[in-house]
Write a structure and sequence with these properties.
The structure is a single chain. The protein is an alpha+beta fold. The chain is built from 37 helices and 27 strands.
Length: 1162
């Protein structure tokens, strides 16, 4: 049967009829074998694969429901069980004239079949009379508001709603049911429907996670995805699971906990503010206190008229019925408050687990945790926290879009959105909108708290990677030696290795005796160092270190740029011979480890593709058969993984010369940027990186600051990878805003003030003229909102002055250009000085003004030739909907007064840049809000036949900084932000710190460390993640912070002062570096190229910062150890240590410079 659609010939009385199954469908239609209420009502006229899937899922979800509804009998549905019974509440409270009969209120909780009967026989029949012309007596307004609340909706409920809903509500129900059943994706929309005569729709789909102590599995099922909502057992949060044998108590136990996927869906639709329906599909079955309980009566304590309580708003009904939009906003605000509470519950549960089981309290429990317990606890905790954080981030993004694109708050906090302007005087609506903004901030706060927990779990993963018995936390984080223990450091290192093998392998019979490779076959003191930057030089060095040469050759291996690939090649060669697989398969089965102490390389057994042996059995077999000889130590079985550690005596002999020879290029692979990778001296690929790009004579926005931080990193990492980089600052130096500035200069400009402080004075002028311009702008907005023509308003006053001056600029009028050039020159000079303080030097200060007329003509000619250009009311535009890009809407290219648009100038700039640079890639580091603009740019280039250029363009988006430090809130210039960083650092510098601080308190030092705090805090967030600046993080000297990294660098400089000049890598006593802490420093240093390459592929700097944090932690621990030892008459050991620290310093410097930071220098 065909679905109903806007083109179907439906009589007016059918359109208004209360139920879909009423008069619209005749008996003959219902008897058709293919007839389906769901397909007929839900499937839109314009079909798609998505809607076909929605219908298919709903039909399965409601399978058998028609029998139960028709005969009012119990029927077991795919989505129904005794454990979760659907319950419902209905109110058709109407405001009608006094002579009419009183409204029906159903205070009893309804079952699913009862809900259908109520909707079918009573509520629908009363609340929606077919007579649309009914006028009330005594001038009393008629308000017909139907509210339906369903908890844990099953197929009976869904089908009942469909059968009893009017056709004009079809679009609203499609949105409600498709999002509720198909996917837990957030959606917050208020819009006018195009369905038949049109109606307004508020649709909110709010998925989130909630925690409870009840193991209540959702037994509702969807055919192709199993259970409708998942729940996750959090028993891993209580790894100790210690029980008192005498009492059976578990004093350290948190108790059972389960994480539930939850979705709350709400739809409100109506054709007027006096005729609407609201439906809420909620899920609180996981909660011990549910809004509706079967066989309970709704509370009737007199709090509302007739004692009615509205479970949708979770409060007593007020006198009368709310207007629909305020009602819907009140629901949304309440729901977000609930979501925030549940997220804090999750944070509390994970935080309590961390406090109870982290190393400082494990020792107090009756039992002891093994390395395996800790590994499972931290891994699962990180996975679940990541899942919850991702859910919160997506939900916040959807709320942002709603507030920014639909509500649109003005500077006076008054909503400007078309559907929200009229709510200014509605107290409930404004209260709800304010609450939504607060909830958004709260959600970011809990997301940050969860992120901090995740970081702590990951740090424990890293620190407890070795399988030693758990240490107290202060030893875990600092790893200082216990002064009460008399054993030497060497004995403790041996004990650590023994425990490692015992914990991981002894239980399975592996490594029954620990094998230590003897150093007798080596010549540890006098290994001749060759130039390791060539394959031949590396071969010589490895041969001297006792390894077979040449290094086995494998596709994808790059031993010249990545020392890990040397070890990987040797391991792959051994592995291939043991299991007899293809070379590529063996090499691909070996992955680098991302956890300190958990092996340097990991053999992932399923990747070997062996069919006749189980992965775990294969791991066990390989653990026995892998040779215990250089360059590897005893392997560690770990489920389907076999973790392999590099031998300490090989590691130091290889890595220190390797890093030293490469110096500032270590970590990079310059061949990546070659046009031909086989021609080392050949031409390099060119990339233009456009970033920061502030507007002329306007405040330097925080978005320009974040673009500068991210853009510097993007440019630096490309340069390190061998690309020819052009760093470009594309100033907003053209357009109507310059015309407005000129009008301001005529009124408020002062040559004397301009000479003193040009940029500050231009800002003052700009502020004054913008204030003067506001009344005209408001007049124009009001006219457009009322549907009036604003042309006359825009042809007079400041509008006219602005447009006339800009037209003169475009016509190259000498006086206009001369004034503009003065403004631009002053802006560029000021920015050059400020960017230099950030460590950024641009190759070009380009701008919209630099776009050539020839390229503009070339773009417009191509648009006309390809039939893309359309004239509309005197302007030229592109309607992307006519070119298979509906989502890009319509864009003006040239305005009706003849001036060019931002889109046209950007398109022409692409041609200009390609003519000047012949770039291979052009990267725009611009805020996420500009995403549609860059899609338009690339799509337009494709439409005019320049797909070759479109494919070279990459938009690197970033989210907002949502909260600023007090020192930044009044910043207007870039220099203000830099001064603010210095002030923050000065205020946060510890006076009497427990640990020594090695950076000094000079102005230069404070500015350097303060800027590092800003850079690292920003870059340590994913680009598309919003965050708030935190002074405590900026100034902290522990953790992954700029202050901690620079403090470590300063300490290394102090340690190395005057002790590196006579280091000879050919004669070092490398045996002095084979203890545990030194080996850990070396292992982390070896991972830098892998980290850099991974960061380059994603252009996410977070991985680099995490890496630097690990290196800093280990270096500080090792230096603490060294400070407590007597180095008198130990010249060989001293030189070896200085070589290690000098190369660690080099790696830190390389990482800092990649991120755009200058290493601390005093």
């Amino acid at each position: 049967m065909a679905a109903y659609s806007p083109t179907t010939d439906i009589r007016r009385k059918d359109l208004d009829h209360a139920s879909f199954e009423g008069t619209v469908l005749n008996d003959e239609q219902k008897k058709e074998p293919s007839f389906s209420y769901i397909r007929s009502y839900i499937l839109p006229y314009s079909r798609s694969r998505r809607w076909e899937r929605v219908v298919r899922l709903l039909e399965y979800f409601c399978k058998g429901a028609d029998v139960s509804l028709d005969h009012f009998v119990t029927y077991q549905l795919p989505g129904q069980s005794d454990q979760h019974q659907a319950t419902a509440w209905v109110s058709d409270r109407n405001e009608i004239n006094q002579s009419s009969s009183a409204p029906s209120n159903f205070e009893r909780v309804l079952s699913a079949p009862e809900l259908y009967k109520v909707l079918q026989q009573k509520v629908c029949g009363m609340a929606f009379s077919p007579n649309r012309d009914l006028e009330p007596a005594n001038n009393t307004a008629i308000c017909r508001a139907l509210r339906i609340y369903i908890n844990h909706a099953n197929g009976l409920c869904i089908l009942g709603l469909i059968k009893t809903a009017p056709l004009w509500q079809a679009q609203g129900f499609r949105e409600l049911l498709s999002y509720y059943v198909l996917t837990p994706k957030p959606r917050i929309r208020v819009y006018q429907s195009s369905w038949w005569n049109g109606c307004f729709i508020m649709h909110f789909n709010i998925p989130f996670h909630a925690i409870s102590n009840s193991d209540r599995k959702d037994t509702r099922t969807i055919r192709d995805k199993g259970e409708l909502r998942h729940r996750f057992d959090l028993s891993f949060l209580d790894p100790s699971n210690s029980t008192d044998v005498r009492t059976g108590d578990r004093p350290g136990s948190i108790g059972p906990a389960f994480l539930h996927q939850v979705t709350c869906s709400f739809m409100l639709t109506g054709r007027s503010e006096s005729d609407w329906t609201a439906v809420c599909l909620n899920e609180d079955s996981f909660d011990d206190q549910q809004k509706l309980n079967t066989d309970d009566e709704l509370e009737t304590d007199g709090l509302g008229p007739d004692g009615e309580v509205d479970p949708i708003l979770d409060e007593p009904s007020l006198n009368g019925v709310h207007l629909p939009r305020p009602y819907g906003l009140a629901f949304l605000a309440n729901q977000f408050v609930t979501v925030v509470e549940h997220q804090w519950d999750i944070e509390h549960q994970f935080g309590e687990s961390l406090e109870r089981n982290s190393p400082d309290s494990v020792g107090e429990l009756p039992g002891q945790l093994s390395a395996k317990d800790i590994k499972q606890w931290t891994r699962q905790s990180v996975n679940r926290l990541e899942m919850v954080r991702n859910s919160i981030s997506i939900l916040v993004g959807e709320l942002d879009r709603f507030l920014e694109l639909q509500v649109i708050f003005g500077q006076d906090d008054i909503p400007r959105g078309p559907l929200f302007q009229s709510l200014v005087d509605d107290g409930l609506a404004m209260k709800s909108l304010k609450s939504l903004r607060e909830s958004r901030t709260d959600l970011e706060g809990v997301e940050r708290a969860l992120e901090q927990l995740q970081v702590r779990f990951e740090r424990i993963q890293s620190e407890l990677g070795t399988a030693k018995r758990i240490m107290p936390r202060n030893q875990l984080l600092r790893r200082r030696p216990n002064r009460k223990v008399a054993h030497s450091r060497e004995i403790k290192a041996c004990a650590s290795i023994i425990r490692l093998c015992v914990f991981w392998a002894l239980g399975s019979g592996l490594c029954p005796s620990v094998y230590f490779q003897s150093d007798n076959h080596l010549s540890p003191h006098f290994i001749a160092v060759m130039a390791t930057c060539t394959v031949n030089g590396l071969q010589d060095l490895l041969g001297k270190a006792g390894l077979d040469t040449p290094v086995p050759d494998f596709p994808g291996s790059d031993i010249v740029h990545n020392p890990q690939d040397i070890f990987r090649a040797y391991l792959a060669d051994t592995l291939q011979k043991l299991v007899e697989v293809d070379k590529a398969v063996a090499y691909d089965a070996i992955q680098p480890s991302n956890m300190t102490g958990m092996g340097d390389l990991v053999i992932v057994s399923p990747r070997l593709r062996l069919k006749d042996i189980k992965p775990k059995d294969l791991v066990s077999d390989l653990a026995h058969r892998l040779p215990r000889s250089p360059p590897f130590a005893c392997p560690i079985p770990d489920g389907i993984h076999l973790r392999v550690l590099s031998s300490p005596n090989t590691l130091s002999r290889l890595l220190l010369p390797y890093v030293h020879d490469r110096g500032s290029s270590y970590g990079y692979d310059a061949s990546v940027g070659l046009v031909d990778a086989d021609k080392a001296e050949g031409p390099r690929k060119k990339v233009i990186v456009e970033f920061s790009s502030p507007n002329m004579a306007s405040e330097f926005q925080v978005s320009h600051l974040r673009s500068a931080l991210i853009g510097a990193y993007v440019a630096n990492i490309h340069a390190g990878m061998g690309w020819d980089v052009v760093k470009m600052n594309y100033l907003g130096d053209w357009g109507k805003q310059i015309g407005l500035l000129a009008a301001g200069w005529q009124r408020f400009g002062s040559e004397e003030e301009f000479q003193k402080a040009p940029l500050q004075h231009l800002l003052q002028v700009n502020h004054k003229i913008e204030e003067l311009f506001k009344p005209e702008q408001e007049e124009c907005k009001t006219a457009k909102a009322e549907g009036k023509d604003a042309t006359e308003i825009e042809s007079r006053g400041l509008y006219a002055e602005r447009d006339v001056f800009f037209k003169k600029m475009e016509d190259k009028d000498p006086e206009a250009i001369a004034l503009w050039q003065r403004f631009r020159d002053a802006t560029v000079e000021d920015y050059k000085t400020s960017y230099a303080r950030l460590g950024i030097q641009f190759d070009e200060y380009s701008g919209e003004s630099q776009v050539s007329a020839e390229s503009i003509q070339e773009i417009e000619a191509a648009l006309k030739e390809k039939g893309v250009y359309e004239e509309h009311e005197g302007a030229w535009r592109i309607d992307f909907a006519n070119h298979d890009a509906k989502g890009l809407s319509t864009a003006v290219v040239r305005y009706r007064n003849g001036t060019t648009s931002y889109l046209l100038r950007d398109l022409a700039a692409v041609l200009d840049r390609y003519k000047a640079h012949s770039f291979d890639k052009m990267i725009y580091v611009v805020a996420m809000e500009q995403e549609m603009h860059f899609h338009r740019v690339t799509k337009t280039l494709e439409l005019i036949g320049r797909k070759d250029l479109a494919e070279k363009i990459q938009h690197v988006p970033f989210a907002k900084i949502t909260g600023l430090l007090d020192q930044f809130k009044h910043a207007q210039l870039l220099s203000d932000y830099i001064d603010g960083c210095r002030s923050v650092m000065q205020a946060g510098m510890p006076e009497d710190a427990e640990d020594p601080v090695f950076v000094t308190k000079t102005d230069q030092s404070l500015e350097s460390v303060g800027l590092s705090g800003l850079f690292i805090q920003d870059l340590n967030h994913k680009r598309t993640t919003s965050y708030a600046c935190d002074a405590k993080i900026m100034t902290a000297f522990e953790g992954e912070t700029g202050a901690a990294i620079q403090n470590c660098y300063a300490r290394l400089l102090t340690t190395l002062d005057g002790k590196t000049d006579d280091i000879d890598y050919g004669s070092l006593d490398y045996s002095q570096l084979e203890t545990e802490d030194y080996s850990e420093v070396l292992r982390i240093m070896a991972q830098f190229p892998d980290t850099t390459y991974a960061s380059f592929k994603t252009l996410e700097p977070t991985a680099v910062i995490i890496y630097l944090g690990r290196l800093v932690d280990q270096v500080m621990v090792t230096l603490d150890d060294d400070d407590e030892q007597d180095w008198t008459d130990r010249e060989g050991a001293m030189k070896a240590r200085m070589a290690l620290y000098e190369n660690a310093r080099q790696v830190l410097e390389n990482g800092l410079r990649m991120l755009g930071l200058s290493p601390w220098s005093g």
